[in-house]
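COMPLEX REQUEST
Ligand: flavin mononucleotide
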Amino acid sequence: MSSKMHLLQMLVSTATTHTLMSWTDPKDDQLGGLQDFAYWQHVARTLERGCFDGVFFADSPATHAVYKGSSVPSVQYGVSWPNHDPMPLVATMAAATKHLGIGVTLSTTGTTPYLACRRISTLNYLSRGRVGWNIVCGFSAAEQLANGMAQQTPHDERYDQADEFMEIVYKLWDSVPDDAILMNEATGQFADPSKIKPVDFKGKYLSCKAVGPTLPSKWGRPLRFQAGSSGRGMKFAMNHAEVIFAIQAHLPGMLKSMEQLRAAAAQHGHSGDLKVILGLQPIVRSTEAEARQRAEQLLERIPLDATLARLSGIVGFDLSKLDPDQPMKDFDSQASQGLKAVLMGGTGDGKAQTLREAANNWALSVGIPQVIGTPEMVADEFERIWRATGCYGFNLSPTTNPDSVDDFVDHVVPILQKRGIFRTSYEGESFRDNLMA
Ligand SMILES: Cc1cc2nc3c(=O)[nH]c(=O)nc-3n(C[C@H](O)[C@H](O)[C@H](O)COP(=O)(O)O)c2cc1C
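STATUS: Structure written out below.
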């Protein structure tokens, strides 16, 4: 366990936060934020005031159309649609801050390793080492269809392709060593060509012939995150990630997931400490009753169709085929095996859940558990889970924004700081400096 807790704020570049129908809430400004730099910069400055390690942009690049075989329910309720690109927001938030790290999801589906490396590394250079890359390989069939593929690549093969994708990215990064850069104004020599290693790669799935596109940053390469929790996904994470994200719906699931990740680390020769960041969704009010009332208010306006449209896309199975009031039955899927296992794992007390009950648990937060109560109660629960699991820290899922971020920073962070378990100032300059501290 780290000596201090690390905190990231999960965000998405769409009208809805993790909480479905959030765009209809009077407290929520994110819909307006889609056309306003100031919204994202307010969130960034608040998080930096609260000494957060960074933000983490999740991304659904295309509209789910698995539920009832159609994109209609997604579009009707604004479920993971519109699919605005988070990449410009990385620059927007970095420009408003000095220390805040900005993690962003970029899938290995639908882009080339060269283009991905160029975009991420440009932002990392521009922000002086404050960018992180959540490397996903596109669990959603919609993403593959949107990008011109006739059908979804099978689950494990997507990871094989992603391994090759990363092999090219590492070669592109290695292509321009620090000492190749001269920038000698007197001689006019920008770089020493004898030190540059052009890439010429031909693999089973991908090829690349290029010189590394960006300058090497003095703050190092972008920080690498990964979140696959199937067997194949964990192997990929152990080979490529510096920090691992996980979602589990309850403490027994978190403990089991930590155990599985430790076993995968041993099996795949992961060196160093395993840094696992778990998801939590705080709902903070001055009394417990108010906080519970808020959670109910958020939940009651979410139609079952909206929840099942998102959930069907994530697990890659049309859940309209199941009776919502019968215990959940297993199904085949080529989408996210890790999140499907969380869904099937129920409430952690061994009782089977109906689909309707499970949907209620997923509507606010994609399977991330709520921590509901006063600032003191929320801080207690964060500390308890951190100590019990030995996780590295938490990814916070907002309900409505920016008030979720404001509430946590203003009321919970000071308690964690007073207990000496969260930083009061940044340790270093780059995302890696702070997240690894
Ligand atoms: C905290 C967290 C955030 C994730 N964010 C994204 C995301 O933004 N985009 C995405 O395509 N997948 C995301 N995923 C899904 C995983 O990256 C992974 O692709 C998926 O679970 C399939 O891998 P698996 O079958 O190995 O579990 C996320 C998972 C977790 C735990």
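REMARKS: The first helix runs from residue 30 to 33. The first strand starts at residue 6 and ends at 12.
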